[in-house]
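Step 1: inspect the first sequence and its tokens.
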Amino acid sequence: MTKSDADHGVGADDPHVKVSRLPPLPRPLDPIVAELFENTRKRGGHILNLHKVTGHAPKLTSAKRPFTYALRNDCDVARLYRELAICRTAINVECDYELHHHHPLALQAGLTQAQFNALRQWQAKAELFDAKQKAVLSFVDEMTLNKGQVSEATFKLLSDHFAPQEIIEIAYNSTSYYASGLFMKALAIEPDEPHKKAAPGKF
């Protein structure tokens, strides 16, 4: 660990290790990356392998941070529906890394463990979900599995339960994490240690 890294609070979360197809972050850490890491810690999160990968592009990663923060903290639609959308999206894009980190967040938001366990085959366990949850799941499935082609019937079902702004927020959460899932898989980001958690955001 360099003096520059120590000055930025890097120690137990050593970023200078290989955690993907890319090499480790260079020494010393870019000041933008060091600031982002410190911000993550202040918000109650660990430095995840995802952060150690995206740190290779400091300016883009810094530019994306406010949007990610807004998805966690600045939406009107209840966190339960956002986490439901994210977890089902992670399943559809087959990204276990994403699903692992959102499992505890989904439970904190109000999803039951039985519901989480049923998400992979939710239609076979439809009785576990209420009408609003099924509307979200149907919308997310068609959007992420049918290349964005959502039927009028499915959209009508969603709009019966959610206002336009809420629909946009659900769609942003799903499509953002779909893109993230592709990113994580393509770069072969390794799983984090079990104790490491993402910054939780507002519930």
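Step 2: inspect the second sequence and its tokens, then contrast the two.
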Amino acid sequence: MPRHIVAVAAIAVLLGGLAPAQAGIVVTVDKTAQRLSVVVDGAPRYQWPVSTARWGYRTPNGTYRPQWLARKWFSRKYDWSPMPYSIFFNGGFAIHGSYEISHLGRPASHGCIRLHPQNAAVLFALVKERVGDTTIVVTGDRPERDVRSRSPRGHAATKRARRSFEDTFDAAPDAAEPDRARRLWENLQ
């Protein structure tokens, strides 16, 4: 066999070993840590806090492919709540933006995986470009209840955050304050 063929075959084998071990986009959600990480073509790219299912609900573990994407979506099941940049992966379960950013990093959803809207936009654009090359992996367990939420101080803070019906709905939102209804709704959550 000619030497140049052997040399070319050896170089091909060596270069083949340098190719990325994992091509595509892998989105991993760790429910225990309440973190989402994104790996693109084997290289870590992003890591963000999320909110998965709160007590009484569940975020299913497993390995999924995106089923469909929606730039603007509203939950028909949960009072038309906004779900911007939705990436549906298991029926009605999705990774999506949430305006309840103060809850990120701890369980708070009805089962979806909530992200900061800016992070959800980045993830949405990335997945949209390579939807057929994306894998979503959901792992871990729901973290233990936050000890602070059971403390007397936490309970008092919750009571202070609640408003009476009259305080909340006394005046209708006017044109000068178009976001008032959304803020009132968020305060009730």
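Step 3: confirm your contrast with the notes below.
Confidence is low (pLDDT under 50) at residues 17-21, 146-178. Strands lie at 25-30, 35-40, 43-49, 62-64, 68-70, 86-90, 93-97, 113-115, 134-139.
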